[in-house]
Design goal:
The structure is a single chain. With about 350 residues, the chain is of the alpha+beta class. The protein folds into 2 domains: about 90 residues; about 230 residues, Bira Bifunctional Protein, Domain 2 (BirA Bifunctional Protein, domain 2). Helix content is about 40%, strand content about 20%. It has 12 helices and 10 strands. Helix 5 packs across helix 8 and helix 5 packs across helix 10. The protein binds phenylalanine. The site of phenylalanine has 11 residues, from strand 9 and strand 10.
Length: about 350
């Protein structure tokens, strides 16, 4: 090994190294080149092994050249590495950048079911008169759903409510919200002003005007001196709030075993205004609820002294109220949850 060939080797190494460094396209390649070229077992070390075969006075010369080559390579590595690292960072920033000014994708919003909405509005109207919302179970016992409401086991009025029974003896799915009256009377002392919205069940074949599940809103007031006139006044306020202040109303005689007297509460036909049309079966009136003075026997079952207190109660079908307000003609629409229907109640 002589000086000239060692020098040539170093020059070749430098040239080759600089080309490879210039050609690198990733920061990781620079790291690898650094090891390959300058590492303990790298190419420069390999070339310098030849130094031992030179005469002593020539060694410093080669050493100087080797240093130069090393510095040149180090410089090139640092420079290209820096370029690549900023380039890589730039590309990453570019690729991962988020434009916070882009308008967001709208998330579709649900809305309240028209029946729930209707019951909330009913509760709001009665809430203004001091009525408080109570809950009462959907699985009820025969005693509370019927007997305490003055409907004994063999009473013909049971035919009014086609009942769905459950596996628990003496239990059923409540056929109306009226058993809630008993539960409130057991839980509270007069004065009582209770509103009981809830799902009810009857054994019915489903069609446009019959459903085996539906919602009712029950009302109960118990106090000293409560009268039928109070009931009439309250229901008028309700009808005016829900259907319009100009609407005429009327009481008709009705029958329920748990109220005496019992009434049907009518509002003038919302379609023809009373001139008689098919929508009101040519009567000019639409029945919106059943009501009456709480039967003394029912007060007694509720633990309330009928000599001292009187009460009135009313019960309405939430679907019927919603139908009248929104012009819906088929009860099945409320249960199908077809978005094309529900979206019309934003
Ligand atoms: N519970 C009766 C029904 O299911 C409605 C009603 C409630 C009538 C309260 C009078 C008093 O139709």
């Amino acid at each position: 090994m002589d000086l000239d060939s060692l020098r040539a080797d170093l020059e070749n190494l430098r040239r080759g190294a600089l080309e490879r460094i210039a050609a690198a396209s990733e920061p990781a390649q620079i790291d690898q080149l650094s090891v390959d070229l300058l590492g303990k077992k790298g190419e420069l070390t390999l070339v310098l092994r030849g130094i031992g075969g030179l005469p002593a006075e020539q060694r410093p010369k080669v050493g100087a050249i080797a240093n130069e080559v090393r510095q040149a390579i180090e410089g090139a590595l640092a420079e290209r590495g820096g370029e690549l690292r900023t380039g890589a960072l730039g590309r990453r920033l570019q690729a991962e950048s988020v434009d916070v000014t882009t308008p967001g994708r709208p998330i579709p919003r649900g809305s309240r079911h028209p029946i729930i909405e209707t019951m909330a509005e009913i509760a709001e109207v009665f809430g203004q008169f001091g009525f408080v919302v109570y809950e009462s179970p959907e699985v009820e016992d025969d005693l509370t759903n019927f007997q305490m409401l003055n409907i004994p086991p063999d009473h013909p009025a049971r035919d009014l409510w086609d009942t769905m029974y459950v596996d628990i003896p003496e239990h059923l799915l409540r056929t109306h919200t009226s058993p809630g009256q008993i539960r409130v009377m057991h839980a509270e002392r007069p004065p009582i002003r209770a509103l009981l919205p809830g799902r009810c069940f009857r054994y019915e074949a489903t069609d446009a005007s019959h459903a085996s599940e539906f919602f009712q809103v029950e009302g109960l007031m118990v106090d000293e001196g409560t009268s039928l006139a109070d009931l009439r006044g309250l229901l008028d306020q309700f009808a005016h709030a829900m259907f319009g202040a100009d609407k005429r109303t009327r009481f008709r005689p009705g029958y329920y075993p748990f109220t005496e007297p019992s009434v049907a509460f009518d509002v003038e036909c919302l379609i023809c205004g009373g001139r008689r049309c098919p929508a009101c079966s040519h009567t000019g009136w639409m029945t919106i609820l059943g009501a009456g003075m709480v039967h003394p026997v029912v007060l007694q079952y509720g633990g309330i002294d009928p000599e001292r207190y009187q009460g009135f109660a009313f019960g309405m079908g939430a679907e019927r109220i919603a139908n009248l307000r929104h012009g819906v003609g088929d009860l099945r629409l409320y249960l199908e949850n077809d978005l094309r229907f529900l979206e019309q109640f934003p």
